[in-house]
């Protein structure tokens, strides 16, 4: 469990890693960070987001009780594989990846027996990146998902729940890797695919002075990190392709009501979507 003297190490000071660090520091915990960009480290120290930072320091790894990988999914696997030899016995390691297939199983297969990897996913973010946009308040209206497997202990699950509570997440739940990636394929990966497709449907840049809130809201997440999201899409491509097929089918259903002048059928679609969307209002 997390104690007052628990030492955290954030590997990768991006938006989520930086926001984690900020929230933990506010709650009085010691937070170190390893980040390849020295400017990000300098910013985080100057703004009291972390206690110490380095482009690489083995001592940070050796001293950490809880290590959080804020790296891309494949990089997380590689980093843990390479540096687990320095982990403190009893250390707990987690990640922030939005896809778990190709991450959880490979890590748990090679992880040392005297440490534990338990995956988690903060369902929070912004359409910007980098520690300079760190903001722990994004967690206060967000969901936190823990992904325990047979390799994980009850204590590790309890520690991750405590971690989420410290950061102020509004809801904490548990899913299997398969359940998570199926769910995220719909609520996140498909929505990003739709936003990207909408922006690429035609050259709509000339409409910038005329669009309203609906277009801006629908395409906010189209401002996307091409390296990260290409990796995420391919890791979860089976679920995403299925969701795209289902979405195309539903769009064709709506299209058919128009082609057939089916006023009542179109209204029913609107009524159903309104009822379902109200469940998400807070």
TrEMBL record:
It comes from the Bacteria. Transmembrane segments: none annotated. Residues 6-282 form the Prephenate/arogenate dehydrogenase domain. GO terms for molecular function: NAD+ binding; prephenate dehydrogenase (NAD+) activity; prephenate dehydrogenase (NADP+) activity. InterPro entries: 6-PGluconate_DH-like_C_sf, NAD(P)-bd_dom_sf, PDH_C, PDH_N, Preph/Arog_dehydrog, Prephen_DH. The keyword Lipoprotein does not apply. GO terms for biological process: tyrosine biosynthetic process. The keyword Transmembrane helix does not apply. Pathway: Amino-acid biosynthesis. Keywords: Oxidoreductase. Belongs to the prephenate/arogenate dehydrogenase family. This is Prephenate/arogenate dehydrogenase domain-containing protein. It comes from [Clostridium] innocuum 2959.
């Amino acid at each position: 469990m997390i104690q007052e003297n628990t030492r955290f190490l954030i590997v990768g000071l991006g938006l989520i890693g930086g926001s984690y660090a900020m929230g933990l520091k506010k709650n009085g915990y010691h937070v170190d960070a390893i980040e390849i960009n020295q400017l990000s480290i300098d910013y985080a120290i100057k703004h009291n987001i972390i206690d110490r930072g380095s482009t690489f320091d083995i001592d940070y790894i050796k001293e950490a009780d809880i290590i959080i990988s804020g790296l891309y999914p494949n990089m997380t696997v590689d980093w843990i594989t390479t540096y687990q030899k320095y982990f403190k016995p009893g250390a707990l390691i987690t990640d922030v990846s939005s896809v778990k297939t190709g991450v959880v199983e490979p890590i748990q297969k090679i992880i040392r027996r005297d440490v534990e990897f338990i995956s988690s996913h903060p369902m929070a973010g912004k359409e910007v990146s980098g520690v300079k946009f760190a903001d722990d308040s994004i967690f206060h209206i967000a969901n936190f998902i823990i992904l325990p497997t047979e390799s994980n202990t009850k204590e590790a699950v309890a520690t991750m729940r405590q971690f989420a509570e410290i950061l102020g997440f509004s809801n904490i739940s548990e899913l299997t890797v398969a359940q998570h990636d199926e769910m995220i394929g719909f609520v996140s990966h498909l929505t990003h695919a739709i936003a990207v497709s909408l922006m690429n449907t035609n050259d709509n840049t000339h409409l910038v002075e005329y669009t309203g809130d609906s277009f801006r809201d629908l395409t906010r997440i189209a401002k996307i990190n091409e390296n990260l999201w290409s990796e995420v899409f391919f890791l979860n491509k089976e679920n995403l392709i299925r969701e795209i097929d289902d979405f195309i089918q539903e769009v064709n259903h709506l299209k058919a009501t128009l082609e057939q002048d089916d006023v009542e059928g179109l209204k029913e679609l609107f009524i159903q979507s309104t009822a379902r969307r109200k469940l998400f209002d807070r």
